[in-house]
Design brief:
Elements (H helix, E strand, L loop, with lengths): L11 H9 L15 H21 L8 H7 L1
Length: 72
């Protein structure tokens, strides 16, 4: 799972140190100029690619497009 946090500039170094101290967390700051919306889009895109890779590897089954449309 990916999470986007909005942290004040003066607390970023502390938060990054805290997150990196947790062995199960991979933390990296966003490059300058990346908005929260763009970061969220990139995180969701990454999750979609991971799901696609799982389907292609046979770890999970793909959903039928009609089933997806019925949910809408």
């Amino acid at each position: 799972m990916k999470i986007v946090l909005d942290i004040p500039d003066n607390k970023v170094s502390f938060m990054m140190e805290l997150l990196r101290s947790l062995s199960f967390v991979k933390a990296k700051p966003l490059p300058l100029g990346v908005s929260n919306e763009k970061a969220l889009f990139l995180a969701e895109l990454g999750e979609a690619v991971e799901e696609l890779n799982d389907v292609l590897a046979g770890k999970t089954q793909a959903r039928d497009a009609y089933e997806l449309l019925d949910e809408l």
